[in-house]
C-alpha cells in the first residue's frame, strides 16, 4: 500500500511545495516606505481632516489577517471522479484548523488556514465542476492560482485521457502555476487486474513527465 501512504502525505507535500514557492517569490518584494511628512506650507494651506472614529470590528479583522499569506489552488477534471470528496477530505476542518466553504452552481470554494514554519497560510481551493456547461468557470478559477491539480479516476482511462484537455485549459489561463496530477479512487483501482493497473500507472507517469507535474494517488474513503 505504498502508493496509498504517498496519497496520505499529499497535503503536507503540497504545503511544502507552495511554501517554497512563497519564500522564493517574497524575495522580490520590499516593504513600502512611509510617505514623507507634509511641508509646513502645505500643512498651513490644507489642514488635515479630523481623525475617523475607531472601528473595533475592522481593527480586529485587520489584526487577525495581518500575518496571513493567501494562496489559491484550483481543481480541474471530469465529472464524478471524486474531486469534491477529495477536497472535503484534504481541506475539511480537523485538528482545530480554520476552514469554511461556499457552493455555487458549477463551482465549489473552500478556505483552509494552516500554520507552516510559523507562517499562517490561507488556502483558497476552487473546485470546477467537470461538466462542459461550466467551462466558463475555468478562467476565473485558474487566474492567479499557485497550483492547479489535474484530477482523474484511476479506474477510468477515459478520464485520464481527458487530462490532456484539462491541462491545456489550465495552462491557457495560468502558465506559472505548479501542476500536480492526482489519480482518485485508489481503493477501487487496486481491485483491477494487475496488467490494467500497470497500463494506467505507466500512462499517468508519462502524462506527469510531459506536464512536469508531481503524480499522486488518492482515496477519499481511506484515512
TrEMBL record:
Keywords: Nucleotide-binding, Signal. Residues 30-62 are annotated as: Disordered. InterPro entries: P-loop_NTPase, Small_GTPase. Pfam families: Ras (PF00071). GO terms for molecular function: GTP binding; GTPase activity. The keyword Protein biosynthesis does not apply. Residues 1-25 form the signal peptide. The keyword Manganese does not apply. SUPFAM superfamilies: P-loop containing nucleoside triphosphate hydrolases (SSF52540). SMART domains: RAB. This is Septum-promoting GTP-binding protein 1. It comes from Ananas comosus var. bracteatus (red pineapple).
Amino acid at each position: 500500500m505504498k502508493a496509498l501512504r504517498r496519497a496520505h502525505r499529499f497535503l503536507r507535500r503540497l504545503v511544502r511545495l507552495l511554501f517554497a514557492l512563497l519564500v522564493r517569490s517574497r524575495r522580490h518584494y520590499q516593504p513600502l516606505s512611509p510617505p514623507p511628512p507634509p511641508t509646513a506650507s502645505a500643512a498651513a494651506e490644507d489642514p488635515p481632516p479630523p481623525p475617523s472614529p475607531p472601528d473595533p470590528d475592522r481593527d480586529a479583522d485587520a489584526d487577525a489577517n495581518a500575518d496571513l499569506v493567501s494562496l489559491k489552488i484550483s481543481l480541474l477534471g471530469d465529472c464524478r471522479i471524486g474531486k469534491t470528496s477529495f477536497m472535503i477530505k484534504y481541506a475539511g476542518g480537523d485538528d482545530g484548523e480554520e476552514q469554511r466553504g461556499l457552493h455555487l452552481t458549477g463551482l465549489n470554494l473552500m478556505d483552509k488556514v494552516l500554520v507552516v514554519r510559523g507562517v499562517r497560510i490561507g488556502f483558497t481551493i476552487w473546485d470546477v465542476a467537470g461538466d462542459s456547461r461550466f467551462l466558463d468557470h475555468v478562467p476565473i478559477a485558474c487566474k492567479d492560482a499557485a497550483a492547479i491539480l489535474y484530477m482523474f479516476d484511476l479506474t477510468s482511462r477515459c478520464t485520464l485521457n481527458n487530462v490532456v484537455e484539462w491541462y491545456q485549459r489550465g495552462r491557457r489561463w495560468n502558465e506559472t502555476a505548479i501542476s500536480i496530477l492526482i489519480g482518485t479512487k485508489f481503493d477501487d483501482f487496486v481491485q483491477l487486474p494487475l496488467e490494467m493497473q500497470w497500463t494506467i500507472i505507466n500512462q499517468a507517469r508519462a502524462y506527469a513527465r510531459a506536464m512536469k507535474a508531481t503524480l499522486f494517488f488518492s482515496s477519499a474513503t481511506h484515512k
